[in-house]
Design a protein that fits this description.
The chain contains three helices and eleven strands; from the N terminus they run ββββββααβββββα. The protein is an alpha+beta fold. It has a single domain, classed as BH3618-like, CATH 2.30.290.
């Protein structure tokens, strides 16, 4: 199928690439089908493009590539909703908010996007009782990681 994206233009999507958010994404509950479109194989960023609305997309990032110490524990309810049988079938993304200047970009580590790669079900989970917030500065996380590797 062909998906029209305001930012990326027409995207050819196979049905097996479509991700289904049974509850939608908070604030966008009426849109339940998305596709992940990598920006560059070398970078940990991608677009999460709505299949149903060409104007709706999110910049997402692999949190472990940017912040390897990232930890999360899914609730039993989230595991059941997504029908997760094994940790191996789970991939995690976080929403990246890009402001006017790239240096001000933030990652939402409090509410990651959890994807079951086996059945393509997904959810934006809230990590209650974690020390994470919705606005971790990307440059600070990258700088902290560079110092560790340094």
């Amino acid at each position: 199928m062909m998906v029209q994206s305001r930012v990326l233009g027409p995207i050819n999507v196979e049905e097996e690439q479509v991700i289904f958010f049974p509850e939608g994404i908070p604030g966008f509950e009426s849109y339940k089908k998305y596709v992940i479109v990598p920006l560059n194989e070398e970078l940990p960023f991608a677009y999460l493009q709505s299949v149903e609305e060409g104007n709706l997309h999110f910049v997402i990032a692999d949190p472990f590539a940017i912040f390897p110490d990232y930890e999360l524990e899914l609730s039993k309810e989230d595991q059941e909703l997504l029908e997760i049988e094994s940790e191996r079938e789970v991939s995690v993304w976080v929403v990246c908010t890009v402001h006017d200047r790239l240096e001000e970009a933030t990652l939402n580590l409090l509410a990651p996007l959890i994807l079951n790669s086996r059945n393509r079900f997904a959810k934006q989970a809230i990590l209650h009782h974690s020390g994470y917030s919705t606005k971790h500065k990307l440059v600070e996380l990258l700088s902290r990681q560079a110092k560790k590797e340094g």
